[in-house]
UniProtKB/TrEMBL annotation:
GO terms for cellular component: plasma membrane. It comes from Anaerorhabdus furcosa. Gene3D superfamilies: 3.30.70.270, Tetratricopeptide repeat domain. Residues 386-516 form the GGDEF domain. This is Diguanylate cyclase (GGDEF) domain-containing protein. Pfam families: GGDEF. SUPFAM superfamilies: Nucleotide cyclase, TPR-like. GO terms for biological process: cell adhesion involved in single-species biofilm formation; negative regulation of bacterial-type flagellum-dependent cell motility. SMART domains: GGDEF (SM00267). Transmembrane segments: none annotated. InterPro entries: Diguanylate_Cyclase, GGDEF_dom, Nucleotide_cyclase, Rev_trsase/Diguanyl_cyclase, TPR-like_helical_dom_sf. One of its GO terms (molecular function) is diguanylate cyclase activity.
Length: 516
């Protein structure tokens, strides 16, 4: 991305990220602007972002398809921010389709990327979503663990958005409610100042009402229970939410069918059908249908076999056992992925350590130790006279450049020389910085003496591109010593002859090569 485009791009992303799922005129204009920017620059980095935000307005199956396209573009262009967000959104979408394994796989990819690139501040977002994944399969203890981690990470941030704090707190209240941690629910709901200015207040009130019903269902009279369920239903009807409300409503409907009256059940079921018809999320359908069957048996189909109620309860137990197994398999997968990432990190550390041992940190070509070792290996393996050639290259009057123009200019010249030599970083060559302003070029298999001279002349010519501001030295020059292998099997004797040839080039006036 060009710098001007990068600044423009970042401004657009800020607009699109604000309250991500809400699309208004400003965001539509920003999305169109992003598309124009991608087309203008023909930049897959920007296209990756465009497809990601574009996907959010589509139904779930199309959204997954477009998000996966965005992810492919983000991976090939190196757009890590969009990679994390794409994996995270795919995790959400697959969980809503009840494909929990795929959901977790995407969440874990998002999480490990987010922890590696902390500057994007997305790790807590993914942890929160992994916690919600465990809510879908009713493993509330695991869900609490992940969401508490997300909350603690977010609260450790210097700049916190009240809306995000509220969202995490609502998730914790919901989980503690389902896990029957009523003391924890009381604690979190007592912090109600956090919810006053947001619609989260109404959701929390519904959760408090749900907890009242769950806690006192065996204490209430039938009339009292009916009144509490009606109060819950009325509260839920006025809230434009599906996931939180439907999860709570299923819990309450089970109690209503078993202990309340038909009118309360029908009112609650009507509200649930209305919300379900407006949502693509299929995760709750099996559970909802199961409770509806129980309602039908009790109020619609009295002639159905009396064993149906027992069948329902046994099916419910089997379903919970299956979910428990599913939950354990997800936790095992998390452990395996953590182990895999640990080994991956260790492997990456080894590669970095190896690189430090082999690479000159300033010029990023091979260092003295690596050059000596590799050339010694090649000489020992292929010590045929005349085939191997060692160039020792020295920058003429480099001390003068540093003294008159400063070390910054000297450093840029060293980098320029490294760039010239990098062109020979191929299978048949070894190039490196031997120390200071001295460099090495080694040919493993020189075809002829003419080839050696051609390379030497090319090197001398290419130095003209590395300019200086010294009047009588407009560009740098090289002095080169070249030793053709006479059957040496070690680096030192070959280097010694090349170094002597270098001395001869300097003695003869510099800006030339000498072959021995």
């Amino acid at each position: 991305m060009k710098f001007q485009s990068e600044k423009e791009y970042n401004e657009i992303i800020k607009i699109l990220d604000f309250q991500l799922l809400e699309m208004d005129d400003k965001k539509i204009a920003a999305l169109n602007h992003l598309k124009e920017l991608a087309e203008k620059n023909n930049d897959s980095y920007i296209y990756a972002a465009y497809y990601f935000y574009h996907a959010l307005s589509y139904p779930i199956d199309e959204r997954i398809e477009i998000t996966e396209k965005s992810l492919r573009l983000a991976e090939t262009s190196g757009n890590v921010y969009i990679q994390v967000k794409s994996y995270n959104c795919l995790g959400i979408d697959y969980s809503e389709k009840a494909d929990y394994i795929k959901s977790l796989q995407n969440y874990l990819k998002a999480y490990y990327l987010a922890t590696k690139y902390e500057e994007y501040d997305l790790d807590w977002v993914v942890l929160n979503n992994i916690g919600n994944l465990f809510v879908w399969i009713e493993d509330y203890e695991s869900g609490v663990s992940f969401i508490e981690s997300a909350y603690n990470k977010y609260m450790s941030k210097k700049d916190k958005e009240p809306l995000m704090v509220m969202q995490l707190m609502i998730n914790l209240i919901e989980l503690h409610s389902f896990a029957h941690h009523f003391d924890k629910v009381d604690y979190w709901t007592s912090l109600e100042d956090n919810f006053f200015e947001y619609e989260g207040k109404e959701i929390v009130e519904c959760m408090i009402q749900m907890n009242t019903i769950v806690k006192k269902q065996d204490v209430f009279t039938t009339d009292e229970l009916v009144n509490e369920i009606e109060r819950f239903t009325n509260k839920c009807e006025s809230i434009d939410d599906f996931i939180y409300i439907f999860r709570m409503a299923i819990k309450i409907l089970e109690i209503a069918v078993e202990k309340a009256d038909e009118k309360a059940c029908r009112h609650l079921i009507k509200m649930m059908h209305e919300k379900r018809n407006k949502s693509e999320i299929a995760t709750f359908d099996l559970e909802f249908d199961s409770v509806l069957c129980l309602f039908d048996f009790k109020y619609e189909n009295k002639t159905v076999d009396e064993n149906f109620s027992n069948y329902y309860r046994n099916s419910k137990k089997a379903f919970m056992m299956l979910r428990n197994t599913y939950s354990k398999s997800l936790l095992v997968q998390i452990e395996l992925e953590e182990e895999k990432e640990t080994h991956k990190d260790t492997a990456e550390e080894k590669i970095l350590l190896q690189k430090k041992l082999e690479i000159d940190p300033f010029t990023e070509i091979y260092n003295k130790i690596y050059v000596e070792n590799k050339i010694s290996e090649d000489l020992l393996k292929n010590s045929k006279a005349g085939h191997q050639v060692l160039f020792v290259i020295d920058i003429d009057y480099f001390k003068r450049v540093n003294d008159e123009l400063g070390h910054d200019v000297g450093d840029s010249i060293l980098l320029g020389v490294a760039d010239v030599l990098r062109k020979y970083k191929q299978e048949n060559y070894i190039v490196g910085r031997y120390g200071g302003d001295e460099f090495i070029l080694y040919i493993k298999n020189a075809e002829s003496n003419g080839m050696v001279k051609e390379i030497a002349n090319k090197l001398l010519k290419e130095t003209k591109a590395i300019k200086t501001s010294i009047v009588d030295m407009p560009h740098i020059t090289f002095s080169i010593g070249i030793a053709v292998n006479n059957g040496e099997q070690k680096f030192d004797p070959l280097f010694k002859r090349a170094d002597e040839a270098l001395y001869q080039s300097k003695k003869n006036g510099r800006n030339q090569f000498t072959i021995v």
